[in-house]
């Protein structure tokens, strides 16, 4: 079942974020980044053909037998924008990501998230569209990421920057409520559980997976559960 993109959803998410005591990270040794969790409308079936070159994008990454890495059959109703990063980027190439990046000097997290949204996917939204923020997440690569939740106000029309983004997908929020989500597994390299969020025919890992899990738990369900201790897979540590 898809989730209706309407004022009731917008007000519920704003209320849940506004009543949450946000967990923030203050560590001068870490670089600060912001990502935009952009909520938009979508139509069922508009994503049946995945435009990304999946074989090149996977680049030898091991895949479970029941998955092939394609982001198909995920659209419909209220959704969020999800990017495939370009494979030629110097860091975190060929990974799933929300629009975002480092803060410029003097920027707030909201300003940075909205700027990166415009630069990466060609969507320009005002600060009045921001519903709130999720908890900070510290990455293995030395960043603190602040997720900024933004109400897109409709379907929008992303135009990804080809040097950074291969494609932009509208992923229905109902995908976050799948019976097989979230998944947790253990790895020998860390005592912390690795989180996996199934979307389409792939698995989304932290930090993006942790942010999406809190979007579900806090934004949709009003649960204040922490996600900052959820681990990234080893391939994302660099």
From TrEMBL:
Domain Nudix hydrolase: 30-195
Cofactor: Mn(2+); Mg(2+)
Keyword annotations from UniProtKB, A to Z: Hydrolase, Magnesium, Manganese, Metal-binding
Highest taxon of the lineage: Bacteria
SUPFAM superfamilies: Nudix (SSF55811)
Transmembrane segments: none
GO molecular function: coenzyme A diphosphatase activity; metal ion binding
Assigned protein family: Belongs to the Nudix hydrolase family.
Protein name, UniProt field: 8-oxo-dGTP pyrophosphatase MutT (NUDIX family)
């Amino acid at each position: 079942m898809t989730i209706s993109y309407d004022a009731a959803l917008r007000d519920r998410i704003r209320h849940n974020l506004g009543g949450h005591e946000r967990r923030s990270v203050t560590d001068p040794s870490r670089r600060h980044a912001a990502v935009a969790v952009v909520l938009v409308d979508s139509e069922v079936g508009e994503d049946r053909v995945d435009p990304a070159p999946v074989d090149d994008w996977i680049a030898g990454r091991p895949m479970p037998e029941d998955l092939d890495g394609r982001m198909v059959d995920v659209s419909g109703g209220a959704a969020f924008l999800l990017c495939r990063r370009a494979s030629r980027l110097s860091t975190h190439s060929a990974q799933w990501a929300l629009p975002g990046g480092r803060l410029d000097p003097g920027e707030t997290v909201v300003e940075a998230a909205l700027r990166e949204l415009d630069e990466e996917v060609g969507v320009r939204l005002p600060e009045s569209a921001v519903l709130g923020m999720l908890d900070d997440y510290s990455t293995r690569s030395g960043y603190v990421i602040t997720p900024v939740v933004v109400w897109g106000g409709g379907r929008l029309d992303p135009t990804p920057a080809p040097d950074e983004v291969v494609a932009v997908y509208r992923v229905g929020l109902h995908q976050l409520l799948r019976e097989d989500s979230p998944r947790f597994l253990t790895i020998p390299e860390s005592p912390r559980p690795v989180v996996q969020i199934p979307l389409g025919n792939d698995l989304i890992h932290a930090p993006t997976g942790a942010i999406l899990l809190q979007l579900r738990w806090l934004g949709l369900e009003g649960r204040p559960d922490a996600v900052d201790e959820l681990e990234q897979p080893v391939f994302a540590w660099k």
